[in-house]
From TrEMBL:
Domain GGDEF: 283-413
GO molecular function: diguanylate cyclase activity
Name of the protein in question: diguanylate cyclase
GO BP terms, alphabetized: cell adhesion involved in single-species biofilm formation; negative regulation of bacterial-type flagellum-dependent cell motility; phosphorelay signal transduction system
SUPFAM superfamilies assigned to the protein according to its UniProt record, in alphabetical order: CheY-like, Nucleotide cyclase
Catalytic activity: 2 GTP = 3',3'-c-di-GMP + 2 diphosphate
The species this protein was found in: Shewanella piezotolerans (strain WP3 / JCM 13877)
Broad class of enzyme this protein falls into: transferase
SMART domains found in the cross-reference section: GGDEF, REC
E.C. designation(s): 2.7.7.65
Length: 413
């Protein structure tokens, strides 16, 4: 990714280059004037341009028109606040108008560019019965590179969410036919938690209680129409930043820090929650508890860094083999588990034994060369009068039997 900074101040351009490189690990080109910018724009493709308005050879903001003409998102970084100029530039379609006041202004700009990069993969659903309003909101969102989908009422929005469960943000008006904004939010929250989908309510109604009612019904935020561009963008970006933060916190709580598979805590919580349903429906559950053979020799002989490489590759292979339909978790050290909901112990044995053979026949590439890694596995099925801990204890006994039998084996409890 390449970014263009057009700025005649060497201090500002150095600060922006440093912050952008730090935030995005990208290539940053700097142009001190319009003439230099024209050359760079002709030679390179840019993801975004951060431009000053007043350049030595272009005092009237000509650089903005040049950047926008090439359909490059443009962030204006200016030393003077001019309300009329700001309004004109926003109408032209710039991403944002940022005043050079202090270091926070530059940090905000770098984070905004980072957000633009992430926005390319974010789907936003706009539900509003007014075509004019939908198109206006769509244009604002597309300036920030979101993927935008439209719905003309609450029922259509529900259908769209069903077809696109990866939508991350719903922006909904209050007054709509068939199903209004409140009804839509209530139905959406029956299917999607705040961690999965963010919602911003909109209304031109003068009722002062609307904002509280929207939020109490499950919206993350509320915006009164008409609104200014910057307020809309700030609300959207803050809402998505909060969603990203919740996702990060969830990952820290539920994923293993090294291998990125689920951790012990997640596995226990998931299956303790599922067991009553499995018991009630007379369903099937089996699990495989596994240990990498002689892993201590890897750490002692090659170092813990190589040991970590082995663990990461082992987890990667487990995920490739099982995570699409089943649950893979690291319990600690070199011990992993796979939960097979819906499979008998015989079927899970067959899958795990095939994985064991693949592991043995395909060496692991490390910085110290190829290592042949084998695994011992204990498999057990669910008895309807026990808990997850009971299953794991029986699987552990089977794992011990596999090790006693010479390792590189799968043993059924």
């Amino acid at each position: 990714m390449r970014i263009l900074v057009v700025e005649d101040s060497q201090v500002v351009s150095r600060v922006m280059r440093h912050l952008l490189t730090q935030e995005l690990n990208c290539d940053v080109d700097v142009a001190p004037d319009l003439a230099s910018a024209k050359i760079l724009l002709a030679e390179n493709d840019y993801f975004v341009a951060v431009t000053d308005l007043n350049l030595p050879d272009a005092q009237e903001g000509e650089i903005v028109k040049l950047v926008l003409a090439k359909q490059i998102p443009c962030i204006v970084l200016t030393g003077s606040w001019d309300p009329q100029e700001r309004s004109r530039l926003l109408q032209l379609g710039i991403v944002d108008y940022v005043l050079k006041e202090n270091r926070f202004s530059y940090e905000y700009t770098a984070k905004l560019v980072r957000r633009l990069q992430r926005n390319q993969s974010v789907k936003v659903l706009v539900a509003d019965d007014s075509m004019v309003s939908r198109k206006f909101i769509r244009s604002l969102l597309e300036q920030h590179l979101f993927q935008v989908i439209e719905a003309d009422d609450g029922i259509a929005a529900l259908d769209t969410l069903k077809e696109n469960p990866d939508i991350k943000l719903l922006i909904t008006d209050y007054n709509m036919p068939r199903l209004d904004g409140f009804g839509l939010i209530i139905k959406v929250r029956e299917q999607f938690s705040r961690e999965e989908l963010a919602i911003i309510g909109l209304s031109s109604d003068s009722d002062e209680s609307l904002s509280a009612r929207f939020i109490k019904n499950g919206a993350n935020d509320f915006l009164q129409k008409p609104f200014v561009h910057e307020e809309f963008h700030c609300r959207v970006l803050n809402t998505l930043d909060a969603l990203d933060m919740m996702a990060k916190l969830w990952e820290q709580a539920n994923l293993d820090y090294l291998t990125n598979v689920f951790n012990r805590r997640y596995f226990f919580n998931l299956y303790e929650e599922k067991l009553p349903t499995i018991t009630r429906n007379q369903g099937t559950l089996s699990l495989g508890l596994m240990d990498i053979d002689f892993f201590k020799k890897v750490n002692d002989g090659y170092g813990h860094d190589v040991g970590d490489e082995v663990l990461v590759e082992f987890a990667k292979r487990l995920k490739h083999s099982f995570s699409q339909h089943f649950t893979v978790a690291r319990f600690g050290g070199e011990e992993f588990v796979v939960g097979f909901k819906g499979l008998s112990v015989e079927k899970s044995f067959a899958l795990l034994d095939r994985f064991r053979m693949q592991m043995e026949s395909t060496p692991v590439m490390t910085t110290k060369g190829e290592l042949t890694i084998t695994v011992s596995i204990g498999v057990t099925n669910f008895n309807h009068d026990e808990n997850v801990d009971g299953m794991l204890q029986r699987a552990d006994v089977a794992l011990y039997e596999a090790k006693e039998g010479g390792r590189n084996l799968v043993s059924i409890a």
